[in-house]
Specification:
The protein is α/β, with parallel strands linked by helices. It contains 10 helices and 6 strands.
């Protein structure tokens, strides 16, 4: 097979890969986050791996490679190329494949049962485009208790981390004797540890004028009755969740308790909890008109994206 034919085949392979990526992007235009390749740094920030170890050479299923350390913006979640500027490098790797030239193993990080490319993104992309199932790789493992499933978006992974943190907090403490798990749902990571710190701070102040140590559960029930429940009741009374779409009562509790503390430092301890709740709602909540306007703008942006990506007829 001559060189010109190899060049032609590589160009056609890249064109097909780009066309498939464009079609996939259009079909998923309402959920673009589902098409994003995971960033290793984002995953590190969420999972906070505790150390790493060298695994060595192994054969890795390509379907388990779900992200990249540095080139996550160049490919979609199935490693189809998202930009034309990577054509040169992509085609050179494809030509090596077409000539049966053996390339060096790629380098991968393993975390949560899946893999992220450290070096070899184009080789993974070409291998997937050519229907490959496995690839040789040098693997470094990052230790994590949280499993990652192929196809997970960053939001899916964030929810998995939050659920893990919730289970850990209730399993390893007596939090379940203070309130029901159904009362404590967060939309951000690290919040369950923050709640435990709130209870411990409340316990510290309760112990200041006592000789005997107040048990954690007793202090927690005091915190629940004097702080958490009154704030949640005000959130419900003032219908605050409608002004903070996508958030939970527990989210608002943490923001409001901090806001109340800031206001008391500024205006004195007589600043009431209800005044703090109303002040927070006015400053940071979204009105019905704001929510409606944002919905209209989001719909308009989606429509413009669809129109811009639709093929134009030639005159």
């Amino acid at each position: 097979m001559g060189e010109p034919n190899i060049d032609h085949l590589a160009r056609e392979d890249f064109n097909r890969a780009r066309s498939r990526q464009t079609l996939s992007r259009i079909l998923n235009i309402l959920t673009p986050e589902r098409q994003e390749l995971l960033s290793l740094q984002d995953v590190r920030d969420l999972l906070k791996p505790r150390g790493e170890s060298y695994v060595g050479m192994k054969t890795v299923p390509i379907d388990l490679i779900v992200g990249s350390e540095g080139r996550y913006k160049d490919f979609d979640n199935t490693f189809l190329p998202r930009h034309d500027y990577i054509r040169g490098r992509w085609e050179s790797v494809d030509k090596a494949h077409l000539k049966d030239i053996i390339l060096p193993p790629i380098t991968l990080y393993e975390i949560g049962g899946v893999y992220f490319v450290r070096d070899g993104n184009h080789r993974v992309s070409v291998a997937r485009a050519q229907g490959g199932e496995d690839i040789d790789a040098e693997v470094i493992s990052l230790r994590s208790h949280i499993a990652i499933e192929p196809g997970m978006s960053r939001q899916d992974l964030k929810r998995a981390v939050i659920e893990y943190e919730k289970k850990t907090a209730f399993d390893r403490s007596e939090l379940g004797k203070i309130l029901s798990p159904d009362e404590l749902n967060f939309t951000a990571t690290g919040r369950y540890e923050e709640i435990l710190r709130h209870i411990l701070v409340h316990k510290y102040y309760l112990n200041l004028n006592r000789k005997d140590e107040i048990p954690f559960v007793e202090a927690g029930r005091s915190w629940y009755n004097e702080l958490f429940r009154p704030i949640v009741d005000l959130i419900e009374e003032e219908k605050l969740l409608s002004r903070f779409p996508g958030r939970t009562e527990a989210d608002l509790y943490l923001w409001l308790i901090q806001h109340w503390d800031d206001l008391k430092r500024k205006y004195g301890n007589n600043f009431s909890l209800k005044e703090a709740v109303l002040d927070y709602s006015r400053k940071y909540g979204k009105s019905q008109w704001q929510r409606l306007w944002e919905a209209v703008r989001a719909r308009f942006r989606r429509r413009k994206r669809v129109e811009s990506r639709s093929p134009r007829r030639s005159s």
